Each structure stands twice: as structure tokens, then as C-alpha cells.
Amino acid sequence: MASTETTTSSATGKPGDDPTGPSTAQATGTTDDSTDGSPGGSPAEAAVGTTAESAGAGAESSSGASADAPAAGEPRPAAGDLAGLEAGLDALDSTVVARQPWLRTVLSKAFPPLIAIVIVLGLWQLAYHFQLKPHYLLPSPLDVFRSLQQKWLEGTLLSFVWTSVSRGALGFLASVAIGTVLGLIVARVKLVRAAIGPILSGLQSLPSVAWVPAAIIWFGLSDATIYAVVLLGAVPSIANGLVSGVDQISPLYLRAGRTIGANGLAGVRHVLLPAALPGYLAGLKQGWAFSWRSLMAAELIVNAPDLGTGLGQLLEQGRELQDMSWVLAAILLILIVGIGIELLIFAPIERRVLRSRGLLVKS
């Protein structure tokens, strides 16, 4: 403060009149030197400068600390570090499987079933060799193969298979349409569920062959009888599967769907069915199994010349002719078709659904 007052008085007065001119100039020079930051400043100015520098350094350090670390002594991670951390945590929950050559993959999946088939055929051949049953009651695997070869050379084998597969596919599609609508109604309407829910469970446990006599009385020996038995066998399984899938949906999904305006058919299409897909798919698989079994039961009993010959009729013809090779060949074809539909249609769909939901790691 003393140097500042001296500078003001020297600016207003004349140098000759004031005997303190040299000291004023010296004080002014001292002030200028201290302003310039020279080491010759007064202790007050040095203290002011030191305080300003320490305040600036403190502000810089505090701003740097607040930008880098929300907590004392802990640096804040960058966005890239957080992304890497999340990716690392996700990697801990997933199983990384190295991609194998396609030949090794095929062998690893086909080799165990082939070994099982070879073992069954070997036991069958041993039973034939030691005559556990007479040969006309228990033919050898070679005899059954010859019977299949005979039907193939006659050109009738594929027609038998196609007749049954076409009937089963048409009946199954009709069952899916009816069972899906019925399952949605039972799952969403409490009064309907209380009324017919137990009936659906009871119908699912009822053997399909029990419907054949009633269907024959209702529709006669016709295709309608076969399709009625298939529908009565498959619809309860599909409906119950969908009801089970809807029951497993989290209420949060339904509330979120209503929030974004997915109501009515839009909610069923975009929220309800996708969320219930695992249970619905299990019901479809079981429905196909029931429809295929119902079809074979109906074809065994409903046998008329104008209906065409399916695998069930082929099996019944073998029984009438007492040709055990023919009977076992028909049973083998029924088994092959059922396994083929499962492996070629339902297994890929199930893998895709599970993989899309993160329940199956893609190799």
C-alpha cells in the first residue's frame, strides 16, 4: 500500500518541488520491478504473488482432480475402459468354443447314433441266430431290408410314406391354428381357463386310439375320421404348451408392451407370442408327436380301398398276411419319419430360439 500511495503523489506533483522525488522514483521502480515479477519486490508483493500462485495451482489441481476422480485418490475410468470392463464381464459368463472343421462336427454328431444302431442290429442278429423266437416270428435284419427293397422296386414305398406324411402335416397345421387360438383364450381369459383348463389337461392324457371308434361312428370310413383323430390328439398339447409359456412371461414385459401401445392383436403378435415362444415351441413338438401317433392309430383301424395306403395301413396289411418282415419294415419306416421330422424341422428351430435368447452358445 505504501508503494502505491507514493506512485500516486509522484504522478500529481512536480519533481522539483518534492524533495522525495528520487525515493518516489525508486519506489515506482520497485513497484514496476515487483509487477514484472523481478526478485527485488517487497515482502507484501511477494506474499500476494505467492498466494495467487498457490491459489491458481490449487484451483488447477482441484479441477484436475474433479475431472479425473469423483472420489479422492481414485481416477475415473474412461468410456473405453468401461466398455472393455463390461465386455470382460460378459466374456466370463460365456463359453468360448473353437470352431471345428465341418467334417469333425458331422462325425461327432453322427458317430454316437451310428454306434447305437450298430449295437441294436447286432443284438437283433444274435437273437435271430440263437432263435429266441422262430424265424417266421422274428426275421433277421437282412430279411426286413429285403422287404423294404421289394417295396422300393415295386414303386410303392414312397407313396406309402407320402400319404402318411401329407396327412400328418395337414392335420398338424390345422391343430396349430386351432390350438394357438384356444391356448391364447385360455391363458388370457380367467373364466374360460377355470372352465376348460382342466378339460384340456384331461384330453391330453387321453389315448388317441380311444377317439377312433367315436370318429368312425361320426364320419364313417373316410379321411374326416383320420383328421378328427389327429386334431383331438394334437390340439390339447399345443394349447397347454402355449398356456404354460404365457404363464412364464414376466409381468414387466406385459406392462412395457401396454406402455408403448401394444394392445390387442398387436400385443399378442409383438409381446405375448415372442415372450412365450419357448413354451409354445415345446407344445408344438409335443403336438406333432401326438398327431403322428394319432394318425398311425387311425390308419391302423380306418382301412378302406378309396382312402389310399399309408404307413398305418401298410402295417395292418402285414398283420393280415402274417408277414413279420413286412410288419417290422412298416414299424421301421414310421420310426424313421418321426425322427426325421424332429431332426430336420423342430431341432433347428429350437436351437435358433435358444441361441437368440443367449441360452445356447454358438460354436
Give an overview of the whole structure.
With 363 residues, this protein is mainly alpha-helical. The protein contains 15 helices and no strands. Helix 7 crosses helix 10. The chain is globular. The relative contact order is 0.07. The N terminus is likely disordered.
Tell me the layout of helices and strands.
Blueprint (H helix, E strand, L loop, with lengths): L1 H11 L8 H15 L7 H26 L10 H15 L8 H28 L11 H14 L2 H32 L1 H16 L5 H9 L3 H25 L3 H9 L5 H11 L1 H25 L9 H10 L3 H33 L7
Helix pairs in contact: 1-2, 6-15, 7-8, 7-10, 7-13, 8-10, 9-10, 10-13, 11-12, 13-14, 13-15, 14-15
Helix/strand order: HHHHHHHHHHHHHHH
What would you call the shape? globular
Number of strands: 0
Q: Largest beta sheet, briefly?
A: none
Number of helices: 15
List low-confidence stretches: 1-71
How much beta, percentage-wise? under 5%
Distance between the termini: 82 Å
Fraction of residues in H or I helices: over 70%
- Average pLDDT metric: 74
If you compute it from the alpha carbons, what radius of gyration comes out, rounded to the nearest whole angstrom?
A: 44 Å
Structural class: mainly alpha
Summed up, what is this model?
This protein has 363 residues and is mostly helical. It has helices at 2-12, 21-35, 43-68, 79-93, 102-129, 141-154, 157-188, 190-205, 211-219, 223-247, 251-259, 265-275, 277-301, 311-320, 324-356.
